[in-house]
Amino acid sequence: MREYKDFSEAMIHDAEIEGERLFPTPHPVFGGAWYHKVVSSLDGWLGIEGTVTLPEIRLSRYKDGLDGHPDIDPEVKSLDNPSVYLGGHAADESDVGLSLSLGVIDRAKGMISKGCIAFRPFWRYITEVDQDVGGYDAHDGKYSVSAVGDNCFANAHWKFTENYYLPGDVLKISVFSPEPDRLRLHIEVIEVSSLASSVETRKKYGWNDPADFESPVFSSPGHGRGLEAEFKRVNAIDQSGNEGGNAIPTETAITNAVWHSTYLYRMIDGRICRVPMGPSRSAVTNAPFDSAFEITSDESRSLVGGETVSIKPMK
Questions:
Q1: Structural domain includes residue 3
Q2: With 184 labelled, which of 20, 63, 93, 175 sits at a CA distance of 20 to 30 A?
Q3: Residue 19's domain is classified under what CATH number?
């Protein structure tokens, strides 16, 4: 195990890197969701870090098929699921970050919402070994892991309301390899949201103030060996039961997800460095088509992997 918890304090390296592979190829579209994906090259990367202001959300497709719901309704399951996440690919794919999820709405009674109401940590990884499958009781009440074949999905226990994140919260999210064939998610709270809706939601449900989060180290074969690996950041509206299909038209929208910066981690001259994920180190896929996205930036923010992302499938 390396002698550091994460790489977020590593020095920034903004000079040329000998032998680096620049100008990666965009990923092809994978159907069933509306998403903006920024991906690195396949190279000797050890992880990725992004500082992001979480977006505002308007959900419009609900299981009951009725109109007139609030922007986020705790009483009815939404068929659209916004997410903000990072991820990597070496031997296989990992998606790691935040997904709009169910949350506790009455702590005294242990009541959980029927609809998704807060961004909560998840880590999805593909492995045939060290799957770590088990419920909350198998993981000291901290998290659970389920698996279908080699596809594993984990999330933090809903009781930790300090790990409920809301629109307007500013977070530094990192996914990195602390040892070979492993990844870890780390979330640092930079600023707590002052949006009236987020302030009121935390007060209404009695949630704790947001706090930092760290996942366990989980299996991700091929990562952390200084060989070919790629990393990504994604803003998405996933759609229930629609993976691999055609994205369903929707008035659901996520607006003003602000990526202040994005850095890749790499070993350079014997030490871990943070490398800006600027235009020459990234490729973009807007799925299923560009007109659903509003992407804004400026030159200084672009050079350090920053931009503002809104997804509006039906403007």
A1: no
A2: 20
A3: 2.60.120.1270
Q: What is the pLDDT confidence band of residue 230, given thresholds at 50, 70 and 90?
A: very high
Which residue has 């009483």 as its token pair? 75
Q: Note the pLDDT of residue 9.
A: 77
Longest dimension (CA), the chain: 59
Q: What is the C-alpha to C-alpha distance for residues 261 and 137, in angstroms, rounded to an integer?
A: 37
Residue 102 lies in a domain: yes
DSSP-assigned beta bridge partners for residue 37: 234, 285
The amino acid sitting at 227 is: L
Within a domain: 200: yes
Task: State whether residue 19 is helix, strand or coil.
Answer: coil
In a domain, 286, yes or no: yes
172, containing H or E segment: strand 170-176
Distance CA 96, CA 21 (A): 24
pLDDT tens for residues 264-312?
Answer: 999 999 899 999 999 999 999 999 999 999 999 999 999 999 999 999 9
Domain that holds residue 15: 11-311
